[in-house]
Amino acid sequence: MLLSLVLHMYSMRCVLPAAVLLGTAPTYVLLWGAWRLLSAFLPSRFYQAVDDRLYCIYQNMVLFFFENYTGVQILLYGDLPKNKENIIYLANHQSTVDWIVADILAVRQNALGHVRYVLKDGLKWLPLYGCYFSQHGGIYVKRSARFNEQEMRRRLQSYVRAGTPMYLVIFPEGTRYNPELTKVLSASQAFAAQEEFLCKECPKIHIHVARIDRKDVPEERAPLRRWLHERFEIKDKLLIEFYDSLDPERRNRFPGESVNSKLSLKKTVPSLLLLGGLTAGMLVTEAGRRLYVKTWVCGTLLGCLWVSVRA
User: In the prediction, which pLDDT does 3 show?
Assistant: First the structure.
């Protein structure tokens, strides 16, 4: 019976992170909302500084579950900047949790609170978070011909004028999934089943970083487009070598030396205890539970109304 219980608990190990991350959402939104009201008559830089700190607290809790809780090994290759700086982060888009990789790198530069995303438009309807991401500096964009370049320029220029610290995350490839490509989906699922990807865990994450100075990036549209395509050609070659190299020594690794980077519990556990403790404290009283439920319901409705008008 004990063995059965242990196996059952192990099979349910993903429930705890989901419960905590979703369960603390109203607490986080209440904290942010209170600060938003208090800072309404203060210079925007004061609001931004505290908002970045709040965001850092929440994302440190997220990283506790994605790194410390899972025990995943992070292997870094290439250019590994250590100092906090304004960057544009361009990455390939292979899974639903690619945004976590941006957090993994940002926390190692002490820039976690500065992470802001260019997001697909549909995510603005996420309960509570859809509105907040926009308030934190995220930019929602529509794909293909519906992309509003002028609006994105306006938002970015407003952040530049305000001196907003920026760790701007963009996935130029856009979507990972197109239901119309049935043959591609079938082939992908067959390959995953053959390689047993659907039932294996991922004990390691390999991250290759190429740091490019701003002066080396073209500013004109046509050269910039060519440059971006060239960068993704380089990326594709790295991935082909990673997965399919004929040399076993070069397979399942990127070129160069890797650094095994472990995230300290001192960075993540305090955030977990703070948000978890505040949420638990709210839920132990009847008034707190009512506030909790109202935040979920009213916050979601007001957030959706806000993004439908402003985002």
Answer: 40
Dump pLDDT digits (tens) for 19-52.
999 999 999 999 999 999 999 888 888 999 999 9
Asked if residue 81 lies in contact with residue 58, where contact means CB atoms within 8 angstroms, the answer is no
- Residues 104, 304, 135: CA angle, nearest 5 degrees: 45
Q: How far apart are CA 21 and CA 7, in angstroms?
A: 23
**Burial 179-210, CB ≥16 within 10 A → b, else e:** eeeeeeeeeeeeeeeeeeeeeeeeeebebbee
In percent, how much of the chain has pLDDT > 70? 85
Do the beta carbons of residue 39 and residue 47 sit within 8 Å? yes
**CA–centroid distance for 104 within its chain:** 9
Q: Which residues of 272-299 are buried (b: 16+ CB within 10 A; e: fewer)?
A: bebbeebbeebeeeeebeebbeebbeeb
Q: What is the pTM of this model?
A: 0.86
| 1, 12 Cβ separation under 8 angstroms | no
DSSP 302: H
- Rounded-to-integer distance, Cα 182 and Cα 197, Å: 20
| Amino acid code (one letter) for 216 | D
Which run of H or E residues covers position 130? helix 129-136
Long-range contacts of 181-190 (CB under 8 A, 24+ apart): none
The residue type found at 171 is: F
Number of continuous H segments (helices) and E segments (strands) in the chain: 11, 7
Give the Cα separation of 265 and 254 in Å (integer).
Answer: 27
- Between 290 and 181, name the one with better pLDDT: 290
